[in-house]
Write a structure and sequence with these properties.
single chain, 318 residues, alpha+beta, Aminopeptidase, 2 domains, 10-stranded mixed beta sheet, two-stranded antiparallel ribbon, globular
Length: 318
């Protein structure tokens, strides 16, 4: 790794956050978080990212103190020298600022030996942002289809076939091993270029128990009369206390796919959402995952703008 100094353009106010010296108060200021109930969640976000995907995090604001844009790079856990590049804009900061931001990230990544950057989170409707990123050497890499479903807390719980049961991990902790097995199978088989951390069961449970947006009451398990886990769903709130959540992950036992278990799991997940106070569920699936995308449509989920991932190779040799 090079120790050479990277020149920060005058349009940027740079904050480096590293595992050995997290400036949490400054991090919270840039996040714009003053609510004391949300501040711990922001710290957990940062610590969790560093724990899961060791790398460098950059937060950038305009020099006048108002945050115009934030950029983050972090190792993707793949071991192939790749990093994710995430750009978020609170407002349109104009091309000079974002251009400097992207160039800075690429330069720092190159010096750190990173071979490739993936930029996710550009919505199909964000044509100016996509065009800007493409002008800085990124090309479209993949597309993710996004859907949402509004939750009716008064709706009847869908019935399940005889011999099939739905429980949360909070209700049935004895199903933990089976759920984790199905989770790992699904993580390995799900298409798309996304982080796949090699977590142990204890690490996985620690992350769930330590997060204000996860919980064992948000982990749904489908199991048979013999308590064999057939499918699992992980819900993740958008923020602590939010009434919206992601269907963060859905997986079915490899030996039981094609039997309609994913549909049962997703219907039961909506029912669970109603019981825990959620009012909307969101999901995102790689466009090549046609069975799940068709399932979303069949269940009446509403499609949202496509999310586009772009990629740029970085030459460590410079």
């Amino acid at each position: 790794m090079s120790d050479a100094i990277v020149v920060v353009p005058p349009s940027l106010d740079l904050l480096d956050v590293a595992g050995n010296g997290m400036d949490c108060e400054r991090f919270l200021w840039i996040r714009g978080l003053s609510d004391p109930e949300l501040a711990p969640k922001a710290r957990i976000d940062l610590i969790d990212l560093l724990h899961r995907f060791p790398g460098e995090l950059l937060y950038v604001a305009s020099r006048d103190g108002r945050m115009a844009a934030k950029l983050m790079t972090l190792g993707d856990g793949s071991g192939d020298g790749g990093c994710f590049l995430s750009i978020h804009c609170r407002e349109d900061p104009g091309e000079p600022l974002l251009g400097d931001l992207i160039d800075l990230a690429c330069d720092r990544s190159r010096r750190a030996g990173v071979r490739g950057l993936r930029c996710g989170g550009v919505l199909d409707r964000s044509r100016p942002m996509q065009a800007l990123v493409e002008r800085h050497g990124f090309v479209e890499h993949e597309r993710w289809r996004r859907f949402h479903a509004d939750v009716d807390p008064e709706a009847a719980v869908p019935t399940l076939p005889d011999g099939l049961h739905a429980s949360t991990l909070a209700e049935r902790p004895d199903l933990t091993d089976g759920m984790f097995r199905v989770f790992r199978e699904g993580l390995a088989d799900t298409p798309g270029d996304f982080p796949r951390p090699d977590e142990t069961l204890d690490e996985w449970l620690r992350d769930i128990d330590g997060s204000p947006i996860l919980g064992r009451d948000l982990l749904l398990v489908l199991h048979d009369d013999d308590d064999h886990v057939l499918a699992m769903v992980e819900l993740e709130r958008l923020a602590a206390g939010s009434d919206r959540a992601w269907v963060e992950f859905l997986a079915v036992d490899r030996e039981r796919r094609g039997e309609g278990l994913a549909a049962h799991a997703k219907r039961q997940a909506v029912a669970l959402a109603g019981r825990v106070g959620l009012r909307r569920l969101q999901t995102m699936n790689h466009e090549s995952n046609e069975p799940v995308c068709r399932l979303n449509e069949r269940l009446g989920w509403v499609e949202d703008p496509v999310r586009i991932s772009l990629r740029r190779n970085v030459d460590p040799a410079g």
